[in-house]
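Slide 14.
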Amino acid sequence: MKLRAIGGEQKAGRSNGWRGAAARFLRRIGAAAVLLLLATGLALWWAARWTPDRAIYPVQGVTIDADNGEVHWGSIKAAGADFAYIAATDGTAGVDARFARNLSRARDAGVQAGPIHRYSLCHLATDQAANFIRHVPRRADMLPAVVWLDYDDRCPDRPTRALLLSELATFLAQIETHMGKQSLIAPGPAFEADYRVTRGIARTTWLRRDFFEPDYGAHPWTMWQANDYVRLSGADGTVGWNVLRAGGEMR
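Slide 15: predicted structure.
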């Protein structure tokens, strides 16, 4: 009877020891998870507020589209936006539903604005230019148009570099005749790596890289989208935050 009691006590001790070790392990996992959540929350909070040092880049602005809802442009200006680029047209038929309203209200708030066209690899340049010209007014006080160059899941076409550069030159010539000023080109990193647009098209470049200066163009950038995660009280969701290189100019 004593031997059985001693054996039972040993088994109970081993069982309690295993359970205690498991509980301690789970507590450590829980503490690590809490710390990870806190670190993630802090990183997101920081990302939503970070903008480049204005002492280095004194001229800064936003990128706005319909996803930002009813934009309160007075608040955007108060947040430090000296200018705004507003989504306007996309391919041959796409039009940002809030472009005209945003353009008008930005001007009323004293924020200089310009239009963005998202270029499509699946449509002819002349048809895209017609869409742009139909919806974007020519105004002397408007900033130069930006041609956004990126891949789009809706478009599987991948033309040769020679064909792309030829079509893009046609598109630029037509919209620049309409606007009365040269455009900017804004290729994404993957697009630029494949097509080397900044090497083939002589235009002011707007490059994109969150938190770190981009270096993927053939020559230094004039505009930099530095943070695509900024949250402002005057707009829904996130906005792109952009800076103009010191000494740079948009005519």
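Speaker note: The chain has a mean pLDDT of 88.
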